[in-house]
# Entry
Amino acid sequence: MTALETGRWSYDQEQKLAMLVYWIRAADPSLPPEVVRGVVAHLTARPQQRTILVGHFERCPDLLPSGDTRIPPLAQRLIERLAAAGSQVVVRPVCGFCGRARLLDRILPDGHRACGQCVQRRRLEPCTRCRRERPIERRVGYEQLCQGCYRRDPAFQETCAGCGRDAFIVARPPSGPRCAACAATKHRCVECGQVAKTRPGLLDGPVCNRCVERLRNNPGPCPGCGDTKILAFLHDQQRVCATCAGQPPRFACKQCGREDHQHGRRCAVCVLRDRVAALLAGPDGQTHPGLAPLGDALCAVDRPKSTLHWLQYSHGPAVLRRMALGEIAVSHAGLDALPRTKSLDYLRDLLVALGVLPAQVVEFERLDPWLRDLLTTLSPDHVRIVQPYATWHVLRNARAKANRGQLTPSAAEHARANIHGTINFLTFLTDRSRTLATARQVDLDDYLTDHHGRARHLNGFLNWARQRHLMGDLRTPPWQRTTPEVTLTDDDRWAAVARLLHDETLNLVVRVAGLFVLLYGQPLTRICRTTPDQIDHEHQQVTIRFGDDPVVLPAPLDNLVLALLDRRGHASIAGQPTRWLFPGGHPGRHRHAGTFRRQLAKVGIMLHPARNAAMVQLAAEIPAPVLADLLGLRPHTAVRWATLAARDWAAYTALRPHGRS
# Structure
C-alpha cells in the first residue's frame, strides 16, 4: 500500500466528506455547499464508498469535467447526481458503441468502459439448441445454452417450495427454493397499505406500482426548490423531489429535465413540440406560415397530453398535414371541398378561433352545403319548388339573422325543419297523385291530421307559395297561444335549488345554469350565451346583468359564479381565452342549449316546469316594468306573466321616476 493510500485510509469519514465537497466545488463553484454535501452523503452511505471515491479524485483531479470512459461506476453516479443538481461543468461519459450517456459498468479489453446492453449485444453466440444468436448462459460439455434453453432444461430445474412446480430456481430463502414467479415477493405499500409488487427507493419504504403512477400523474411544488416536480422522496420527514433528496432524477424528462407532464422517457411538452413541428412542416421543412399561429397555440396548452391524444386519434391533423404540404388551401373554400365531418367542423372552429381563418357565422355557413346535399336526393319536380323557396326565403331570412348576430343553433335547426316540412308535404301530395297546383284544403287537413304538430314548419312555405300563385288558398288552422302551466310546486322547486347550491358532486356548470333557470327564469338559449362581461364582482357583492339593470346574486350562488369564472375555458384544445361563461366543446363557441337541457334532466330538473314556476313567482313579487328591466324581457311579455300571476301592477308605472328610460 502506498503512502498516499495509507493516508487516505487514516482519514475519518467527516474528513473524507469535507475533502470530496472541496474537490467538487473546486471544479464547479456554482454548486451550493449544502447541495454537494447532501449528494455525496447520500451516494456514499457505506464508509468504503467514500474511501474509494476519495481515491478516484486523488488519482484523477479532473474527474468531473473529463468525460473519460474509464471512470468507474461510483464516480459516474456522482457525476449523474451533480448534473441533476444543476451543475453545468460535469460531463457524463458516453458509451462508445451507442453514444448514450448511460452507466458504463462493463470493462472492455482496452480499459475503457461501455454500457452493459452494448457489451451483451457484442457477445452473442449461436445457441446449440434454439440456433439463435443469444448471450450464452451456460456451457455444458459440447453445448452452449442461452438463458431460455438453460432454464427450460429439466436437468437444471427443481421443485419450487412456493408453487410446487418443477422450475428453474432463482432464489433460496430459508423457507425453501423459489422459482422466478414465486421469488417476486410482494410487500405492503407504505402509501396505500395494499400488499403488492413494489418499487424500492421511494418515500420511506416500498411503494406499489399503482401508487407510483399516482405520484407520477400528480406533481406539485417541491418544498425545497419550489419547482413543480414529482414528490416521491423524503428529506427531513418532508416529501421533496429527487434533486432535493440527493437522488438521481428518475422521473425527469430526458430532453428538458421537467417532471410536471410525464409521457414516457420524455415529457409531454417536448413530445408535443416535436410532433407539432413535424405536422405543420412544409415541403421546405419549415412551419407553414399560414399555420404558425396554430403551432404556437398547440405548444402552449396547459394539458399537453390532451393535445397529443387529439393529434393521434382525430382526423383533423391529417387535414392539417395536407394543408402544410400545400395539397389543401388554408381557407374556408379548401375545407368546404372536403366531406363534412365532426372532426372537420372542430378543425374549422379551431382555425377560426386562432385567427388562421376569418370568422364566419358557422350556423349559416353550414346551411348552404347541407341544402345542396339535400337537393341531390329529391326528384326534379320537387327541386323546382324546394330550391327557390329554400334559397330565397329560408336562407335569406337566416342570412338576415346572421348579420344581426341572432342566428342561434336553434334558429338554424328551425330553418332546416321548415325545409324538411316542405319536402314531406310535397311527398305526401305525390303519394296522392296530386301536385302543389292541384292540392285542395282537404289534402292539407289530412296531412296535418296524419302529421300532428308539423303545421308550424309548413306555414312559411304555404304563405310563400300563395304569394307566387303556385297553389290555391290553402291555410293551416290559426295558432293558439297556450297559457304556461305551473306544474312544479314551491317545495319541489326550492328543494331543487337547495340541491344545486350545496351538492358538491354535481357539475359546477350544471349547478349555475340550473340556478339561473330556477331562480331567475332565464331561458337556456340566453344562459348559454352569457359572457363574463355581464358579471361584476366589485363593491363586496356579485351582480349579473340579464337585462338593463344588474341583479345581485345571493350567497352561495355568488361564490359558485366566481368559481365558474376561474374554471371556464376548458373546451378549447388550444387553450385560448373564451368570451363565453359556458364554453362549448368547440373552440370559440358556447355550450349548446340542448346539452344543458339533457344535463339538467339527468339531475331531475325539467326545463319548462322549472322556468314557469320561477317566472310566476317573480311576476307575483316584482312589478312588470321592473321585471322586464331585470330579466331582459319585452314589456308585453312581462305583463303576460304578471297577468298569469294574478297581480295588477299597472298603477306602478305612474310611481316610477319620469327621468328613467
User: Anything to note?
Assistant: The CA atoms of residues 263 and 617 lie 55 Å apart.
